[in-house]
């Protein structure tokens, strides 16, 4: 795939637009920022590490001196930090909010609000931020772009273990959180007319999130992974396409070939039945009301 040609055919100028994105300093996020700056967008880097975020800002400005870049700190495990970041974002002219941050095989613990940290990072915090920012995005005719995952296929919502705190397998726990995020937002945006949603996924690519294997195993597989799977610079094009093309109903955007390789393509997202997605949405709204002090 010729990336320059793809950009010419599938994108347009983002001059005058402000894009806020989480996970801006990771593999996909870094590459995505490069494309966004190239297209003329102003950037708000939402990241848990302020020092790394500022360093990335300086790198962007070195390559694209005219790009306006701001930094907001948000630790997605900490709701106070998430609330603070959301308030700061509400004071900015955000046209596009991209949720890219994620955590896979990390050390597990229960967060202060009583939920599993993987569930918190991958679902609860981004849903809270998106729901909070929605009035602003409506005013600006904006868009939410989220990074989903093919791992959502590995799980199904369990009313007896919503956050999968009782599960150990990382793919199940991560997949469950992504499933909640994807299908709660499908429901949230179902009748939305002023703002829009794009669900995207990069397939499988070599980033920090894939570096979770034991050191000996990882040393063996990392080079074949780099050869076999798309580089982040190509994998993130699915996310970039989501900026320019909304998903209507049950659709998402990802690599065209088996969801792993190739140019981004929109396809049906039909892996969650209505009764399950309705349950997921009710859970999302209940958690949001509790976190905002509006529990019924």
Tell me what you see in this structure:
With 296 residues, the chain is of the alpha/beta class. The chain has one domain: NAD(P)-binding Rossmann-like Domain (Rossmann fold). Helices cover 45% and strands 15% of the residues. The chain has 10 helices and 8 strands. The protein has a 6-stranded parallel beta sheet, with helices on both faces. A two-stranded antiparallel ribbon has the order 7-8. The radius of gyration is 18 Å and the shape is globular.
Distance between the termini: 51 Å
Which superfamily, in CATH terms, is the homologous superfamily?
NAD(P)-binding Rossmann-like Domain
* CATH-assigned fold name: Rossmann fold
- Give the SSE string: HEHEHEHEHEHEHHHEEH
Number of domains: 1
3D shape: globular
Structural class: alpha/beta
Biggest β-sheet description = 6 strands, parallel
CATH architecture heading: 3-Layer(aba) Sandwich
Percent of sequence in beta strands: 15-25%
CATH class: Alpha Beta
Instruction: Count helical runs.
Output: 10
Over the alpha carbons, how many angstroms does the gyration radius reach? 18 Å
Mean pLDDT across residues: 91
Helix coverage percent: 40-55%
Number of strands: 8
Outline of this structure?
The protein has one domain: NAD(P)-binding Rossmann-like Domain (Rossmann fold, 3-Layer(aba) Sandwich). The protein is 45% helix and 15% strand.
